[in-house]
Design a protein that fits this description.
The protein has 334 residues and is an alpha/beta fold. The chain has helices spanning 4-15, 23-34, 49-60, 75-79, 113-125, 160-163, 177-187, 202-213, 219-240, 246-252, 265-281, 289-300, 308-312, 317-327, and strands at residues 38-43, 64-68, 80-85, 90-95, 102-106, 127-130, 133-136, 142-147, 166-172, 259-261, 305-306. The protein is built from 14 helices and eleven strands. The chain has a five-stranded parallel beta sheet with strand order 2-5-8-1-9. It is globular.
Length: 334
Amino acid sequence: MSNGPAWSQKLRAEIGKAVIGQDAVVERLLVALLANGHVLLEGMPGLAKTLLIRSLGTALGVQFERIQFTPDLLPSDVVGTMIFSPKDGAFATHKGPIFANLVLADEINRAPAKVQSALLEAMQERQVTIGGGSHQLPRPFFVMATQNPVEQEGTYPLPEAQTDRFLFKLLVDYPTAAEEAQMMEMWGQVTTTPALQAVSSGEELLALRQHVDAIHVSPGVQAYILALVRGTRDLAAASEGNGNGAESGRAGGGPKRLLNFGASPRASLALFQAGRALAWLRGSDYLSPALVQEVFHDALRHRVGLTYEAEAEELTSDKILAQVLERTPVPAKA
């Protein structure tokens, strides 16, 4: 039925001319493209996050724009503004870099609240407001943002309302020794750099989403997705009803307060849509519980709020989500 593996392979092969490793991250980016979702990448400096997204835009053959977020950035620097023309005495709309198919929001947590709110409208509504008028953004439209997990000076933490609008939060890790050695060989030449070609198009991507929508999701798997998401809320609700939280847990053996809040309904939609996209990429015509489990951490790690008690015990959202996965029964039939 589907040519998902072939489409995935040609894009990954082209991106691989410039980016070594990061196979899992590349696959998740393709899933996000098919599911019409935005992605937040978090990783240390120098891990080729910007190169990866730029290479993806080139291989996909879509218009790419990069916005370097800084504390002095203004909303008009992102969405555009009205410019007065002395010749005819009228205002003309000057569109900003957000009017592209693939927008890289580099170091998004350096942007102040006004810029973040302007980006929020673009991500959710696929439109921006300039001079009181609404302007539709091109299709397809994706925001892929990066942030540095260790540098906090001069940064503005993203509010939950904005992080919840990202389909995935992906953690970019260091390459292996073999990959880093291959990287030196590839990028060690000062005079030459790998050149990428477009192997797909925005029109093809929009058409492929019809195949993703045809992926079958059984009632059992739908119930499994709901049970996983609601399991995070149950964990937060149990914490709220625990009185003194951690103190009660130590004194009476009850559950410790780990989550301030669980995942929103957007998490259910994210698992449903991303799971079907991953199934299509893998050549399957149905969504299995195993594929839901694969995307579970990427789709939910930014949608739950850890308590101070959990952070004091050096727990992460991934560790708590792993507990939810372990406690939720897997349906016998997909």
